[in-house]
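4.2 Preliminary Data

To establish feasibility before requesting continued support, the project team ran the inverse folding procedure on a target of 110 residues. The structure was first converted into the token representation described in Section 3, and no sequence information of any kind was made available to the design step. The complete token record follows.
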């Protein structure tokens, strides 16, 4: 069986391509600190020893994409992302729907 390999084409960039690349790099450099901060917020919220933290861990462990999880729970991906960073709480009916989509069940520990 033949394995497909990506071919790398080497050529000099045009002036407009170089300028566009420079702008993209500047944009990435500007956005990176905020992305790192949001990622840390996600990690901190996930590690909470709360019901919300447990739900966040289940979301992160799910094989479904955030968009698919949000759609199945009837919420927007932005709301789900805000919950994952700890910036927003969820109403109890939304928590119930998310738990159902994830196959989670709340049980009382005796």
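Position-by-position output of the design step:
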């Amino acid at each position: 069986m033949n394995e497909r390999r990506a071919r790398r084409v080497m050529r000099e960039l045009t002036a407009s391509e170089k300028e566009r690349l420079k702008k993209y790099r500047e944009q990435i450099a500007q956005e990176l600190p905020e992305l790192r901060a949001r990622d840390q917020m996600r990690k901190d919220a996930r590690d909470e020893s709360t019901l919300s933290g447990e739900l966040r861990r289940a979301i992160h462990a799910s094989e479904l994409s955030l968009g698919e999880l949000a759609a199945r729970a009837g919420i927007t991906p932005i709301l789900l992302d805000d919950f994952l960073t700890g910036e927003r709480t969820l109403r109890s009916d939304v928590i119930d729907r998310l738990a159902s989509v994830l196959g989670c069940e709340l049980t009382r520990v005796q």
